[in-house]
Amino acid sequence: MHKGDSVPLSQEAHQFLTDEMCIDTQDLTERVSSLGCGSHVGDIFRMVEDFIISLKKEDAEEEVQRIFLKYEHLFEDEHAYAIVDPIRHAFDGFAYGGLHQLFTRQENEAWYPRVLLTKELKPNDIENLGEIVEIYRGCSMSEHITQKYGQSWSTSKNVAEQFAYVHYQNQPWFNHQDRAVLQSTISKTAIFYSKQECEFEIVVNVNLLGEVRVCL
Prior knowledge:
Layout: H1 11-19, H2 25-33, H3 38-54, H4 60-70, H5 78-104, E1 132-140, H6 141-146, E2 152-154, H7 157-165, E3 179-187, E4 191-195, E5 201-204, E6 213-214
Antiparallel strand pairs: 1-3, 2-5, 3-6, 4-5
Helix pairs in contact: 3-4, 3-5, 4-5
């Protein structure tokens, strides 16, 4: 089993994670490094490198699981497992259905590799939208204060209210007083993904948002 000093991700891994999986490598690296334990940090980076290699194999899903079990010594560390299992889930989704599966099936109640779309995700129903779309987002008020907005919005104010005040209320970090529903507009040309059913999701280029305000 891999042991030893912490090693960074290779340039090839950074490029694959960024270009193919649209994963924020800075966020990933900071999260792994936060463990502060050299052997675990090094092992997790090696696991990621092994996962990337596994994606090139015909039985990629099975290979991801096989590799994950090679690092079972990490399961005994609660903090390490809270990182490696979401990484495993992300690679498993990508192996199964590519970027579409990874993005639409990501888990958001706890830490998860941050997926930042930089290209259109297909299939979608963007063509059915108007040229300018009114959108809403349920999030923390601190997100609005810092203006570091997430990409996932909704064309439904009611859905945004559910994300603001209902979906995460059982999480230990939830603070009702810190929650808000934001409203903005976005050009059709600045939308990466749309699925106008269920959660009426819109994924946008946040650099091209119109004025953002808090819904009262």
